[in-house]
What we know:
- By secondary structure, this protein is mainly alpha-helical.
- The chain is built from 18 helices and four strands.
- The protein has helices at 2-5, 12-16, 25-36, 41-58, 66-77, 82-88, 94-105, 110-124, 130-137, 141-146, 154-167, 169-176, 195-202, 205-211, 215-235, 243-249, 256-268, 284-301; strands spanning 178-180, 239-241, 270-271, 281-282.
- Strands 1-2 form a two-stranded antiparallel ribbon. It has a two-stranded antiparallel sheet with strand order 3-4.
- Helix 4 packs parallel to helix 7 (94-105).
Amino acid sequence: MMLSIFTPIFILYPVAEIEVLARKEIFIFCIFLAYLTIEQYKFKIIYKIFLLPLAILIWEPVIFFFPFWIVLDIVNHKLSNFREINYRILPSFLPSLSVVLYIVTNPISLDNHQILSEFLKNEFNEICYMSCALLKSKSTIYQQFHGNFHKYSFEVFLRYFLIILIGFGPLFILSFNSKINVKNLFFFRSFNNLLLPILLLLSPVIILFAMGYDWGRWVNISYFFSIVFYFYLYKNNFLEINILALNKVLNILNNKKIFFIIFVFFCLGWNPKTVISGDVASFPGYRIPYKTFKIINFKYLNF
C-alpha cells in the first residue's frame, strides 16, 4: 500500500511540477474529499445539488469523474438495480448536468472574449492568457479535439502507456486482489475483483486525453480519484482483500534492502511532466529540495 501512496503520479507529481499546486483541480479534490465525509443521505443530496454545479463552473472536465460519485453512492446505499439508482441518485446530478449542457451549447463569442480580455486588463491588470486565451481558439467541442491532433505520435502514446502502467501498478495489484464484500450490488456483482470496475470508471477520461494536452495532469487527477476511491472502500470495510494472493505477488518486498531500493527508484526516481510533449523527468527526489532551496533563496535569503 505504501507504494500506491508514494507513486510519482500522486503526491510527488504536484511537488515536482510545482505550478500544478495552483491549478483548479485542487478545488475539485477538496470538493470530492468533503463529500466522502458526509454520512446522512439528505445532506448528500443537498451537497450534490449545490456543490457539483459549482465544481463544473470551476473546472468543466470534472464531469468525466462523476462516475466515482455515482458508484460510491451505489456502494454506500447498497443499491442492487437501476430503478433504485434512477430514483435515489441520478436526480441529484441533474443541476450539474444542466450546467454542462448550457456550457457546451453556448460557446463564448469573439466579442464576449474581447470583453473578457479588456475586463482582466482594466480591473486586474492581467493579460488574457492560458485557459482564458484558449476560450477563443478552443471554445467548441470540435476545436477541443482538433487542436490536439498534431501532438499525437507513437512516442507519446508509448510514453503515457508506460507512465500509467507503472504509476498505477501498485494500485492495479491491490485492486486485482480486492473485491466488494456487499452481495448483489449493482455494477460490482459482475466482477470478481476491483480492477476492471476502476478501469471502467476511468474510461470517460479517455475523452479528456483526446481534448487536452496536459496529460500529466490528467494522469494525476485520475490517480487521485482512483486511490481515494479504493482507500475509502477499504477504510469503510467494503473490501475483501485476498491477503494470500497479495503476499505471493509482493513476497520479494519482504526483504527490507530490496524494498528500499525499489522504493527509491520507483517513488523518487521519476515523474511525468505536465504537458503531452514533455518527456519523463528523472530524480525528482534530488530536484525538489534543490528547486525549493532556490525559490526560498531567491525570495527571502538572497544568498
